[in-house]
DNA sequence: GCTATTTGACGACAAGCGTCATCAGAAATA
DNA sequence: TATTTCTGATGACGCTTGTCGTCAAATAGC
């Protein structure tokens, strides 16, 4: 009994690419173009026409992949932050067995700030996402919450006496994350004057002393 | 010998107001309208037409007072921050004679967060100013620097062994300010869920433990 | 090789923007 | 009272934006 050998794919191959491959490639081109433009001239100055010119595509394919420049911004932010968060978590996991608090904290912070040495990524993730819309604001807020939870989980591992579910401890962790993120934002805005090492050690002292006071 | 009795004022009185009075009143009306609109629908969604409607004036008087909506934003930001900074400095000065570190820090933080319980002010000062233009970015950066210097000056008073002009101490202070500002921003974005007291005590612990580790 | 699909280039359209000009009426000056 | 200045309302302009339609060339499937 004959069956359709391939899962139904809308459209046909063109230029050696299947329809879904083409869509994915176009999406990637727009993601790259968006990071370039949002991170240089800014989100509000970026138009669909500019995005298409930068991506080397035409507007039809933009609207096939995104409904809106806001949706593109959300996709870029989520992708960038997902990758950075994964890198930080990997660095933490690698340093955790040592048991050395200083080493663990430094490893996480160094990975974090290293990622934001890319000025375009930094600008999009700390400047351009703010104040765009309630939806983007929610994305940003949730991400800060994720980093806060990450910090709390590390603190609970390192410090047995860390308060388990205190409301205040949560806000302290969030303020610590705020210190780190604001450092990154200010690092960008000041043109990366200070070397990364200074940022890392300053924030490491902040984390260490506060966690010591609580743990 | 006859002299002109009044300093030359361009224009004449109208509606019981002198020309400069009228200009000042219009400027204030636009500042208020801008705070209302920038703080609710956002800076990029605010147009000159909307500003005029909100202010109850016509565009001619907008252009007499401001060249641009960006200039209005800068004026609103500067005015708001000037007032808040003055309030914080007054609270610090009032608490300084006590010599009680905890009390001084708490007084400053409480005044700070109290100011940003106004959601419109908070939104303009922490969300809307970011990523608008290099000029506005510079305004924001300088303001953060001012608060950082304020923190350092207080720390030097309270802690005799605080490192005088260490580059790292400067970045630590800035990270602390970042923690405070990010707390304020997140407070707004989370809909002011937590009471102010929690924000104050959490940030007070942050400041106290870190300054203790350095002083 | 024929036909249907996909592509890129180009133009058009309505809507919204900042900005300016006009014009009748209100208010102050002479 | 007559003249000048100021005010508010309205409309128009040039420009840019998002969005869609058209059309010839390129490519795939039969």
TrEMBL record, chains A, B:
Feature: DNA-binding region: 47-66
Domain HTH tetR-type: 24-84
GO molecular function, one term: transcription cis-regulatory region binding
Pfam family, one: TetR_N
Protein keywords: DNA-binding
InterPro entries reported in the protein's UniProt record: Homeodomain-like_sf, HTH-type_TetR-like_transc_reg, HTH_TetR, Tet_transcr_reg_TetR-rel_C_sf
Protein name (Swiss-Prot/TrEMBL): TetR/AcrR family transcriptional regulator
Organism this protein belongs to: Stagnimonas aquatica
